[in-house]
Every structure is written in C-alpha cells, then in structure tokens.
Design brief:
Layout: H1 9-19, E1 23-31, H2 37-50, E2 54-60, E3 63-71, H3 75-83, E4 94-95, E5 107-111, E6 132-134, H4 136-144, E7 148-152, H5 156-159, E8 162-164, H6 175-185, E9 194-198, H7 203-214, E10 220-223, H8 226-237, E11 243-248, E12 255-257, E13 276-278, E14 287-289, H9 292-298, H10 304-311, H11 314-321
Parallel strand pairs: 2-5, 6-10, 7-9, 9-10
Antiparallel strand pairs: 1-3, 1-4, 2-3, 8-11, 11-12, 13-14
Bound molecules: zinc ion (ZN) (2 copies).
Residues 266, 268-269, 271, 291, 293-294 line the site of one zinc ion.
EC number: 1.14.-.-
Catalytic activity: uridine(34) in tRNA + AH2 + O2 = 5-hydroxyuridine(34) in tRNA + A + H2O
Organism: Lutibacter flavus
Length: 343
C-alpha cells in the first residue's frame, strides 16, 4: 500500500495538465482531541490519494489543519469521505476564491505536535473556550463600533498586501509574538473594549480567542472562516467589503486578489506592487515583494549576491550550499537588510 507521495512536482504538474480537470483549492480545520494521529494520517492519505487530492495537511493530538486541492468532480466524494469521520462531519470547507489547478503538486499528510505552530503550551488554558464567532455581516457591524479594536492575527508579510481597513496589523514574524504585543497594547481595556480578530481561514483566531479569554479579556470576537469565508459571504449577500488588497494564502498561488487596491510596495524600488516572489537563489529563497521591472533586472533575486550565485553552474551552487542549514522553505519570513523598501 502506498502511504507517501512518489511523484515529483514536475511529473504531477504534467499529469494535471493531461487530465484537464478543473481543481478546487480548499482549506478546513477542526480542533479535536485525536488519540492516534498516525492512524488518521494513514487513513486520510489512502482515501485522498484515491480521490486525487493534493495539498498539505497537518494532523496532531489537537486536531487537523488541511490545505488541499481536489478535482471539482470529486468534491462530493470528498465531502462524503470527511462526513464519515465523526469529528469532521459537516466541517466547513473554505473554497478558494481564485482557482489554480496547480495550487498544490503533492499530497502531504503530516503528523505534527500542533496543527498551527503557535508556540503555546496547551496545558495552560482551555482551547475550547473560544470567542464569539461572527459572520461577514456581524463582523462589519462590530467593525463600525467605536469601542472595537480589530486585530489582524497574521504575520507581517501577510497583512502587508491586504487587510481590513481599520485593523491593527502587528509587525510580527510569528503568531506567538502577536499574542504578546496585542495583550500589552490592550492591557488596560480587557473589560471595556471589543477585541475583534481575524486571520486567513479562522484557525489562528480559534487559538487566539481562547488565549485572550484565558488572559481576562471579556469581549472576544472572531471572524468565522476568516478572510476567505468573509469574501465569499460579502459577494453572495452583496455586503460592503471592508477588506482591501490581497489575501495571502499558503499554496503556490501565494495570494487571492480581493480588491484592486495595491497597498504594498516593491521591496527593491518602492513602486506600488503586491506580488510576492521567492528569491531565485534556492539557498536563499527569501519571500519578498518584487515588481516586474525589478524581477527582470534582478532575475527574481533579492540581492546582487544571490544574482551572482544563480549564474554559477548548478554543481558549484550545490557546493556553496553544503553545510548551510536548509532554508528552502517557501514561506521563509520575508525580512532582509538587502530590501531597501521593506517597511
Ligand atoms: Zn521594483
Ligand atoms: Zn536571495
């Protein structure tokens, strides 16, 4: 029985083209005490491989967090499969706004300590004692309340290209850092202000809202389904859209455009731009914003140094990489001194 992905990204991309099927990019999560994550992991891998699911999923003792793509024609079968798992029955599936058949090229289901790297010790508080869930309409309403502080629970490189108009966007690299910053900022208002939170798909706010309630905040609210679900509801119900720019996502698409506003700048020349790229030097792979002009000039590199490295023969590049810790992570935090216009 096959329990692991065997195809390379290129082979998979080719197969997707050949199949010519439209795929849907989907995310979902559920906090739930899973006794044996490895068993669930293997079960999901086998079932999903059959359904031609691709993507990245984490399973842990605290639940499941899935970012996947599936052929549109298999969506009903996937739903049925998820419904057969008791704690995933009727779980909300966030379906991406902008579709790309190649949003994922591998099926990876991994057992992890946590489903979101939150840097928290779970034993200290009750993660099921969460805030009040709001839909798009309720969120808009509370956003207008002068007594509300709206906080973006994502990292700096995500909020940089898009966020709710009046939101506080902490300049942080990790979820853990933003928890502390927000708590410090609001320490005198734990009882009198509405703490209104949002993130990409809602999962980070589940944890954050429980954390803040544990810390004594009295009025804790969160956007259910995050920006993805908000956008869907705004369209469907013709509500006012209070989000501007793009929604950063964790697959090959990198972002979904929500409005035409470009609120960020090229990190190299400062021109308005909200296109993320990864530095073409595999050993660097820095995530940053680069306009087309700079991309051409710099051959999609973050620095002159990286540009010089990619001119070298492949074997020589490999030699240079030896002994350097693998930084080849798609979403390496986008900070570097070489980026003149990174705020
Ligand atoms: Zn530029
Ligand atoms: Zn670089």
């Amino acid at each position: 029985m096959q329990l692991y992905n065997k195809l390379s990204a290129e082979e998979r991309a080719h197969l997707i083209d050949e199949a010519g099927k439209d795929r849907l990019t989907i995310s979902f999560y559920q906090y739930y005490k899973i006794e044996n994550p490895q068993i669930l992991r293997n079960h999901l891998f086998i079932e999903w491989d059959n359904l031609e699911v691709l993507g990245r999923t984490y399973v842990s003792n605290e639940g499941i967090n899935a970012q996947i793509s599936v052929p549109a024609e298999n969506l009903a079968a996937l739903k049925e499969q998820l419904d057969s798992i008791s704690f995933l029955k009727d779980c909300r599936l966030n379906i991406a706004i902008e579709q790309d058949n190649k949003s994922f090229l591998k099926l990876k289901v991994k057992v992890r300590d946590k489903i979101v790297a939150d840097g928290l010790n779970d034993d200290t508080f009750d993660v099921t004692n969460i805030g009040i869930h709001l839909d798009a309409e309720g969120f808009n309403k509370l956003l207008e309340d002068p007594n509300t502080v709206c906080v973006d629970m994502r990292n700096h490189y995500e909020s940089e290209i898009g966020h709710f108009k009046t939101a506080v966007t902490p300049d942080v690299d990790t979820f853990r850092d933003s928890l502390d910053i927000i708590e410090e900022d609001l320490k005198d208002h734990k009882e009198d202000k509405n703490l209104l939170m949002y993130c990409t798909g809602g999962i980070r706010c589940e944890k954050a809202s429980a954390y803040y309630k544990h810390k004594g905040f009295k009025n804790v609210f969160q956007l259910e389904g995050g920006i993805i679900e908000y956008t869907r509801q705004v369209k469907e119900q013709e509500l006012e859209n209070k989000f501007i720019g793009k929604n950063f996502v964790f697959d090959h698409r990198r972002s979904e455009r929500i409005t035409e506003d470009v609120i960020a700048n090229c990190h190299q020349c400062g021109e308005p731009c909200d296109m993320h790229v990864n530095c073409a030097n595999e050993a660097c792979h820095l995530l940053f914003i680069q306009c087309e002009k700079c991309s051409k000039k710099m051959e999609t590199c973050c620095s002159i140094e990286c540009k010089e490295i990619i001119q070298l023969p492949f074997e020589e590049q490999k030699e240079l990489r030896k002994g350097i810790p693998n930084s080849n992570k798609i979403f390496k935090k986008g900070r570097s001194e070489v980026l003149k216009y990174k705020k």
